[in-house]
Amino acid sequence: MKEIKLSQVKVVFIYGLICPLSNKIRYIGKSINPKQRFKKHINYEIKSDTHKARWLNKLIKQGLMPELVIIEETSLDQWQEREKYWIEYYKNDLTNETIGGDGRQAGWNHKQESIDKIIVALKQRSKKCRRAAAKKTSIKLTGGHASEITKQRFSVSHIEYWNNLSDREREKRTSHLLRVWTNENKSNLSATLTGSKHKNTTSKYRGVSWFKRDECWRTWIYYNGKQKHLGYFQTEEEAALAYDEAAKIHYGEFANLNFK
Fold this sequence. Notes:
The chain has 260 residues and is an alpha+beta fold. The chain contains 9 helices and 6 strands. The protein has helices spanning 34-43, 51-61, 79-89, 112-124, 127-141, 148-163, 167-174, 183-194, 236-251, and strands at residues 12-18, 25-31, 67-74, 208-211, 216-223, 226-233.
C-alpha cells in the first residue's frame, strides 16, 4: 500500500459510528480514509478491552453492524479542534474515552501488561504456526519498497544490535567474509557437495556397488538430494568411469572423481 505523507493530506474527515439499535452516534473519530479506518474498528480493535470494543462486540454477536457517517470535512491544521467539538457535542452517548484531538501517533507504545501477554502468546505458538506466519510475511513484503523512515529505523536497529555483540560473536559472524578460497578449500567443498565414498559400500570406487542378484556392478549418483541410477556394468572400473562422467556433468569443476 502506498504511504501517504502528511504534506499531501488536504482533507481530514470527522466521522461517527451510529448504533443500529438506538440510531445514535456512539463513537467520534478522525481519518483521512474513513472506510479503511472503519474496517480496522471491526477487524482488529474489537479485540481490545475498551468501551468502544465492548459495544462493537455486543452488536456483532447480535448480527448487527454500526453505520459509518461523515460528520464534517476539515483541514490538517484544524481537525483536533473539530474532533473535540463533536465529542463534546455528542458526549452523553459516546464510547470515546478521551476528549479528542490526540489521534494515533507513530510509535505508540503498548502497556507492559499487553507486552507480557503478547510474549506469552508468541512463545506458545507451534513451529508450524511460526513458519506459516513467516512465509506469509515474506510473500507480502516481496517486491515492496520501504520508506526512507523505515530504512533509517532498520539502520539504527542494526547498528544497536552490532554494538551489543561481543568480540567473539562479531568474529563468528564475519569469519566467512575473510575466507580465502584456495584449491584445498575447493576440494573440501566438492567433497561435501558430491558426497564422500560410503564406508560400507562393496566397491573401492565412489558411486559403485555390487548387485548380487544379477552378479554385476551398478552405478548411481546423488544430485539435488535425489539418487540417480546410471546403469549396470560387467567390471568395477567401467562403473566407476560412468560415475565420473555423470559427476562432471552435474558438478563441473567441483566433481569428486574416481579417476583424476
